[in-house]
Amino acid sequence: MTTRRTAVVVGSGPNGLSAALHLAQQGVHVTVLEAHSTVGGGTRSDELTVPGLVHDVCSAIHPFGVASPYLASLPLAEHGLTWRWAEVDLAHPLDDGSAGVLAGDAAATGAGLGEDARTWERLFGPLQRSFPAVADDVLGPLVRVPSHPLRLAQFGLRAAPPASVLARSFRTPQARALFLGCAAHLFQPLTRPLSSAVGVMLIAAGHRSGWPVAEGGSRSISTAMASLLEELGGEIVLNHQVRTAADLPNTDVTMFDTSPRAVADIVGDRLSQRRRHRYRSFRFGPAAHKVDFAVRGGVPWTAEAAHRAGTVHLGGAGASVVAAEAAIAAGRMPDHPFVLVGQQYLADPTRSVGDVHPIYAYAHVPHGLATDATEAVVAEIERFAPGFRGRVVAQHVSSPADLEAYNPNYVGGDIVGGANTVGQLVGRPAVALDPYSTGVPGMFLCSASTPPGAGVHGMCGFRAAQRAMAYLSRG
């Protein structure tokens, strides 16, 4: 009689749950160990301000969630996950009251960008059409043989240049700001090679599938995944902190949905000296300073499109966004930081209480910033929505230190799992043929510190679990 294989997953973020689900689908008995009292990692929601108001604690908008090849393969709708879309995916207001607007496909978005209509469609139309075919290649390690080399080359030609260079393709300030605001999700200087990559991916995914939210909050994603895992026979143990190898049960494979440093702390001398050094020296990037608001009547935006947008990027003209991202990477707090505002209630009214709505906002700030950046967030919203302060009923602040205390993977407030430098985009978390293997037999890293990086797509966990299954098949 064959003994059933077992696996332990440390951490229940979307990558940990994806790893657990893939292993369970292959007949492995999986136990997930979660230090928190609820599952979710970066996909949790809570009442942070006013009773009944649903705020997303971490991730909020999910263009990669709906576009993920692995998540799309799962019957998550049967376990309660429903995607909802605002009328407009994204608006990037400018000081003159106009805005760059991401709404619909490349042609529809381009039509709102005046003389940049043809350029926008030329750059992003082909990627929109080919995104389903290349998503598996794009959402994976950069160093590997692609499944669709010619289509991936289309993506690469747009992703390789510095974002500041690609932005010169546009003549209007609205188009430049719209693109550079998306590129700023990299949390790195936009003058560096490959700094276009994240922006190009977000725009292509948005044109294909939109930027949706999960009905009931981002927690609905992890709740659905956990429900499916339990249906497949997996177990989830909450309030179980893993600090050392002694906290791990005996098992055939162990998956770590943690930072590389945490793996080095837990596994210790079982790692090779070289790998241990690489994990401990893994670089983390700039941080987020998050403020959740309860706002009566919503935000009084000057730009009309922002009233209908699920996501609003603040930072003004493209050049100002470039300057702000350079400042935070150098450890300086900019006068006008890039701020992301989420208005999830526009797609999902169940999150509001009467005319009081949850508003999600965070500023890009230097790594580990110790000073309070709340006023900078409020001032940037007020800049594009005069009268905002007077509508705030309550607020909840999460500094970089608070974010790390809540989720240890957010080292120094870095919410993207590690600095997106050129070196770490190519070799994340270490330069290796298998970026998911720790080098210790049966132990794999599956967090956002592995390819393809941050985003609620589950692909890091899925790919790591594929490596784990290959290991088990050899055993």
Automatic annotation (TrEMBL):
<dbReference type="Pfam" id="PF13450">
    <property type="entry name" value="NAD_binding_8"/>
</dbReference>
<dbReference type="InterPro" id="IPR036188">
    <property type="entry name" value="FAD/NAD-bd_sf"/>
</dbReference>
<protein>
    <submittedName>
        <fullName>Phytoene dehydrogenase-related protein</fullName>
    </submittedName>
</protein>
